[in-house]
Specification:
This protein is α+β, with helices and mostly antiparallel strands and 486 residues long. Helices cover 53% and strands 16% of the residues. It contains 10 helices and 12 strands. Helix 1 runs antiparallel to helix 4. The two termini are 51 Å apart.
Length: 486
Amino acid sequence: MDEVGSLDLRPAGDDVGRGSLATRIVVACVAVAGIAVLVAGLVMAGLARRSAQNVLQDSLSAQADVIASQVDERGVGSRAVGLGRVAQVVRGQGIVVVILLPRSRIQSTDQRSTEAATTAGLKEIGSTQRISATVGVEGTEYLVEARGIGASSGFALVEPVRLAADTQRVLIRNILFALGAGLLVAAGAGALLGRVLGRPLRRTADVAAAMRQGRRDLRAPVEGPVEVAEVAQAVNELSVALQHSEERQREFLLSVSHELRTPLTAVNGFAESLADGVATDPRHAGRVIQEESKRLERLVSDLLDLARIGADQFHLDLAPVDLRETLHACAEVWRVRCERQGVLFQLELPPMPAVVTTDPRRIRQVLDGLAENALRVTPPGARLTMSLAHAGSVSRAGSPAGPGGVLIQVRDGGPGLDPEDYAVAFERGVLNQKYRGRRPVGSGIGLALAHGLITRLGGTLTAAPAPEGGAAFTLHLPPPSAAVGN
């Protein structure tokens, strides 16, 4: 089946305006990877910023504790001198020392740092009090660590939060690098995944395209993920079903052609004899031509009904009908025909009216078709029975009653059907194909047409063995409240 993959039977322009599955998978993988990296980066940037700020705050707090423990406690002046020296030492680290002297005097070399320390509460700091704060001044955040070192005196270490921003810039660069690498990996993985998924789907599409052009011998490879394999398996099953259906259609057409050819041959033969003046009995020839013409007319009418039966415009004349009258009229015709062939005819009617809402003309059409099929296979001396019963009672054939409505049966004393044939009796041409040459058969469309008509009327038609020895065909028509509309 490797050659199937090389087929390219899709119509030109099918892919215009549509991306391939592989392309869509690549785009989806890249998009997912990009979003995931960006979200993770944003979260990590915030965490890194807070972590860096906490580290700086802890470091500044430790320095403030060390300075507070080393400041000379022998006098305010000594403390100021000591703190001034400390300020010179930490200035290189970007830290400003703001000193609080008695009478709320502030000593500092940076106005913004002084404002940050004041905002944090340096002027109100008490002896041995500790202040840790983050203060914003003119759009810049400052870390403030203040300590009280005596009555009305203290100091504050002030540092702008610039190192956290530096750390964040480094992190952003790393995130961008990770984003680029992730997108490349996602694109590669998407391309590989698209190739793995696309190959069996492409082969399946090629097989489907070949099926559209009439090929039935190709099969799609059942491979890949479960869902893809299921698609291929479904296409293969569809191909087998189409092949089987087309074979049945050919057999049906052959059967119909045979049925059409027989009366046409008779009509043509007798017409030629009349035209040539060699007919010994022109009146007999005329009767044969008339009978065969009617036969052709019925066959063509059945074919047209079968073709139109599923269409919305198929017309039904629904009305409340007492089916006892319909069966009685039908029985008058078939009793005479049965007598001509030596077949015993029996009609079974209920004593009470059997009223349903249906199309009596279509019911009569179905009954005539079933009776004709039954009479064709019933030998002389055997019985052909038509029966009518209210659903809920049991007929002589032992058929179970339906939920209301009526049951009509046509039973014969012929050879019947093989057990497996009852389930397929209403498929076009099946019985004709099987029993042709073994017993008299019809066109192969009568049962299919009857089933379609009854289904359209909202009823059911089933087949089963009959107590007379042959086959029993049972019509179940629903009560008036459940009747189908036009």
